[in-house]
Sequence to fold (340 residues):
Amino acid sequence: MKITDLKCAIIANAPIIQITTDEGITGWGQIETPKPYVKPQVLDLKDWIVGQDPRDVERVMRRIRVRGGFKPFGAAVSAVEHALWDIAGKAVNAPVYRLLGGKVRDKVRTYRTLYQAEVPGGAAHTPEGYRKWAEYGKSLKGEFTLFKLPSAYHSSMVRDFPDYYYGEVQTDAPFPYPHKGTMTQQGFEHLVACITAAKEALGPGYNTAVDAGPGFMPIDALRLAKAVEHLHLMWLEDMITGDYVPYVNHDLYADITRHTTTPIHTGEQIYLRQNYKHLIESHAVNVVGPDPADVGGLAEIKWIAEHADLHGIAMAPHGTANGIIGLSALIQVCATMPDN
Fold:
């Protein structure tokens, strides 16, 4: 079997890729909806994979991994990898999880990222708004019990709350989450009040993680982690680096993690397992969250999960905005992961 073509179309703002073969088997992959601009990068990979056997997934990936990078530039390589596994599974009439070692679970636990704009009438970045957010989350179909709350620098709170931090509020940055700096006392206390309101409104049987950055200075990150220890949150996510930041700063994370019982999380922007190595082996965080549509693919995220498990680090794979094809791919690999 040989790859004959690689195509990419933007559908509902999401790049959808199609790999065709000389035996009539087609593989599909999908890239996050905020990244239509990576279509040219996808198409640039065509000459590197045409003529290769798509069932030799690792051999093909060795030809193109060098073309990726930290989020968003790992997306094209990752989507191609998903499509290769799709073809490999169809070729032997087997689900991809069988090719990845077989499943160890029949169900995959999920959490629901719930944006304030999804709440009917909106949910303001105030304690009252966060209580409204929690009540709406509990009413959703699907009986979700775990949520993720966008807040702080990972939301419009930095613009909506006057004097939230000491830096300048930006309204025209060419990339998401541009704010970074020391928080004011009133901004910090407002954030803690909002998170507390959301957690208390969720009540027993529910929990939330907080997607808080990037943008925190380390001292504010530690203050927040200490201030919410009593809430037993699932984790605080990407406070120092994270979404679209092209580096990790594992040492800064370690300084926070070692001085709080609140779980600290990062990783959705990281490309390839090698860039997780020090983060995991130094125990710089408690939870890692690679995204299979950014990290390099399904085999890549499974390698990371296994390594994290050896070091007692929890896994919470990222998959927001990956679409139905991306979600399907994530479910396949999650069925094969260890119990961390």
User: Anything to note?
Assistant: The beta strands are 3-11, 14-21, 26-30, 112-113, 146-150, 207-211, 236-237, 264-266, 287-288, 314-315. The domain at 112-233 is CATH 3.20.20.120 (TIM Barrel). The first helix runs from residue 39 to 44. Residues 21 and 229 are 53 Å apart (CA to CA).
